[in-house]
Amino acid sequence: MKIFTAHQIYEADKSTIKKEQIKSDELMERAATQLFEWIHSRLRGTQVNIQLFCGIGNNGGDGMVLARKLQEHGYSIKVYVVNYSDKRSKDFLLNLERLKENKVWPDFINKESDLPQISPNDIVVDAIFGIGLNRAPDAWVGNLIQHINGSRAFVLSVDVPSGLPVDRNPWNKEYVIQSSYVLSFQLPKLVFFLPETGVYVNQWEIVDIGLNPDFIAKTDADFELIGRPEVLPMYRPRLKFSHKGTYGHSVIIGGSYGKIGAVQLATNACLSVGSGLVTAFVPKCGYDSLQTAVPEVMVLTGSREKGISEIEIPFEPTVVGIGVGIGLDGDTVSAFGNFLKKVNSPMVIDADGLNILSQNPEMLTDVPGLSVLTPHPKELQRLIGNWTSDFDKLEKAKAFASKYNIVLVIKGAHTITIYKGKGYVNTTGNPGMATAGSGDVLTGMIAGLMAQGYPSVEAAIFGVYLHGLAGDLGVSSKGYEALKASSLIENIGSAYSELFRQPEMEQKDNTQ
Ligand SMILES: NC(=O)C1=CN([C@@H]2O[C@H](COP(=O)(O)OP(=O)(O)OC[C@H]3O[C@@H](n4cnc5c(N)ncnc54)[C@H](OP(=O)(O)O)[C@@H]3O)[C@@H](O)[C@H]2O)[C@@H](O)CC1
Ligand SMILES: Nc1ncnc2c1ncn2[C@@H]1O[C@H](COP(=O)(O)OP(=O)(O)O)[C@@H](O)[C@H]1O
Ligand SMILES: [K+]
Q: Which residues take part in binding AMP (predicted)?
């Protein structure tokens, strides 16, 4: 699903109004009716106090329409207009009048007003600011926002949490609604998925308001949200008359004394995702344990006992995964640099492989084109330098990936794969995966997919999705805390099956 900027959403809005020859208030009515139906289908008339806080723009206009519909269906409502500007939108004013015609008179909250009482049992509808926010809210509006956040009431935000701009970080982090649930119109917003701004959104859901599908289809987006519909077409079925050679020969290079497990996890994941053959290249100390732990994997060793000091692969691998557990010993760094000069296969580079590149940036030009680099945030910072915000980070990451013609997988709660100026935002995975070795598993999975012929960028997007899905399945039986990296590998098969499960059994859950 595409992720649009605020500007693109306004354009989609305009094109819909033009194409359908409707008035803007009809689109507002349609949008807010969807909000009402969402609430009504859950509350079914339950008498709970609903407090609606509405701004004076179109987000507030949505709130006005919603208030009218709730009142018409007998709900107990209290409506406030957060009167932060004299520049009220036309459709807000129209719907304020319609509400008054229904004999509902909102309270106007100004700078001088007392803050209203909100009980923890109330439902708050947050329609103060939408995507039109373009500066910090005034202090008194900020105080109201903090008051709502402190109320412990369930807060349902219309379109976006008020105070959260969609294309940048907030001006004031205290002046943002902490949403229990966001009903966002038509398309997801990038801020929901970034570490600094995603914290304001507990759960979110898209409300389809029928914006012009042709416009959405033909407009390029810088970011795309990756769910099952996006990954399914990437899947490459296995062929009846295939053999192990059809699915590539992966080589995983890494390990050092005390860190052979990383190679064990990566090779095992590589096999489990479907690589035809897998060879590990490790120091001698890794030989026995690897041969025992993963008998399907072939093992080559270097000349040293505890670390890698030269890399010789006596065949042309389909793909090379390098870096897990490899360490930063001087001889290892030289071996890594020399290997980069002679390797032709695309690579997956992780962990200390990335740290070697950060410390020796001249090596970056030797990284084969279309290789995949998989940094966690700290490794990314070493690679691209500091950033001032998540938005700045993404710009720098895009420039870095383009400069070296590589795929950059920025790992996190919502891993973002960067390639050719575009970002692909993953939706699977959970905090149970914040555990030692889960990145090693991902390295093996992406390598194993590339071995089978997935183009690098698809291997990264598909691999990240499948890895997260394996984590989600693992959590359902083990819980968050007990999930280990090896449990992810055990669930790769089920994750593949889950991809093809019938949609009617699907449970929509966007818990962050
Ligand atoms: N396109 C769609 O899909 C549909 C969208 N719809 C809805 O419209 C919403 C967007 O509405 P909107 O453009 O009127 O902006 P909104 O967020 O209500 O803000 C109002 C105005 O406040 C101002 N302002 C900004 N920051 C400020 C600040 N800190 N302190 C004080 N004032 C500030 C600024 O005006 P300015 O003062 O800059 O001229 C701004 O214009 C969208 O989120 C969705 O809910 C649906 O109805 C139908 C389909
Ligand atoms: N809170 C989280 N939610 C979803 N996925 C997570 C979370 N924390 C970590 N992960 C995933 O787990 C993996 C961790 O990788 P990494 O930090 O390299 O671990 P390690 O170095 O131990 O192998 C990444 O794929 C990341 O996206
Ligand atoms: K809002």
A: 411-415, 439
CB count in 10 Å sphere of residue 155: 25
Of the pLDDT bands very low, low, confident and very high (cuts 50, 70, 90), residue 510 is low
Q: How far is CA 264 from the centre of its chain?
A: 28
Domains of the chain: 2-220 (3.40.50.10260), 231-236+244-500 (3.40.1190.20)
Please name the residues in contact with 54: beta carbons below 8 A apart, sequence gap of 6 or more. Answer: 60, 61, 63, 64, 67, 79, 80, 81, 82, 92, 106, 125, 127, 128
**What's the chain's average pLDDT?**
96
User: What pLDDT, in 10s, does the model give residues 196-251?
Assistant: 999 999 999 999 999 999 999 999 999 999 999 999 999 999 999 999 989 999 99
The pick from 23, 35, 58 for probing ligand 1's pocket by mutation, whose C-beta has the most ligand atoms within 8 angstroms, reads 58
Closest CA to 53 of 87, 80, 29: 80
pTM here is 0.95
Q: How confident is the model at residue 105 (pLDDT cuts 50, 70, 90)?
A: very high
Q: What distance in Å separates the CA atoms of residue 270 and residue 283, rounded to the nearest whole number? A: 19
CB 129 less than 6 A from any atom of ligand 1? yes
C-alpha 136: how far from chain center? 26
d(CA 386, CA 389): 9
From the CA of 326, how far away is ligand 2's center (Å)? 19
Q: How far is the CA of 411 from the centre of ligand 2 (A)?
A: 6
Distance CA 510, CA 281 (A): 40
- Quote the CA–CA distance of 211 and 28 in Å, as a whole number: 11
Nearest ligand, CA 426: 2
pLDDT in tens, 349-405: 999 999 999 999 999 999 999 999 999 999 999 999 999 999 999 999 999 999 999
CA distances from residue 283 to 323, 349, 440 in whole angstroms, order as listed:
13, 18, 17
d(CA 307, CA 294): 20
**277 Cβ inside 6 Å of ligand 1:** no
